């Protein structure tokens, strides 16, 4: 089983490595990577999410199970983080980093892994997870950096309504509920667009890796990595067993909580005045360690 999982995950690891090597060798201009990220975020990725939800058979039981597990675990972890913040007097600049390190997720790696391992059924479940979690983790991340109870909540909600990933998912879900069907030619066109998303996204993940400053704060860096890549998926498995969630949904949810944090966490940290260097170190370490931890978790799970 380990060999099978390694074979499935190897292309993901290879594409991330390729992106890193191309960026370090400066074979492509920095403007290319900025353009690639923008194209993927605003066009390719939303189209893929729309297509998966537009043609999927979504069961209400799955939505209820995902809500139950995700919100239970996110609530417990958030409360624990705020308690630790109070005990250790953690400043907002670091606290926002810890919140993102444990709660945010790399959508590119997640979708690629779910698509390779669990195919269409798994992709449908993962799309439901994303629709719920993208708004939730963004709100929690921004609140973690907020120093006063001002009107930032309104701004967060407005930004979320303009998020192309949420829009793609919502439009796909509404199209599914409408009972309409896509014209075969247009569906093939969307499939070709969607096929470009994951390879390009994974290379962009590799290009964003930064390995400077690992010697600084090695202990909290290790804790954030261990907590996200091993602690969170084990907790997710326990919650799934507690609520008697079906095997496929359990597998997808555990995989979701075993993903490294999002590369976009660095940008949000910098915008809100957090410790962006520490965030960059966490993103890079989690992404690299995830190559091994995902295989370990999935070998145990499947």
TrEMBL record:
GO biological process: transmembrane transport
Extent of the signal sequence: none
Xref: Gene3D superfamilies: 1.20.1530.20
One Pfam family in the UniProt entry: Mem_trans
GO-annotated cellular components: plasma membrane
Transmembrane parts of this sequence: 6-22, 42-60, 66-84, 96-118, 124-145, 165-186, 221-244, 250-268, 280-301
Subcellular location: Cell membrane
InterPro entries for this protein: Mem_transp_PIN-like, Na+/solute_symporter_sf
Keyword Transmembrane part of the UniProt annotation: yes
Keywords: Cell membrane, Membrane, Transmembrane, Transmembrane helix, Transport
UniProt topology in membrane: Multi-pass membrane protein
PANTHER family found in the cross-reference section: AUXIN EFFLUX CARRIER FAMILY PROTEIN
Family statement drawn from the similarity comment of this UniProt entry: Belongs to the auxin efflux carrier (TC 2.A.69) family.
Protein name, UniProt field: Transporter
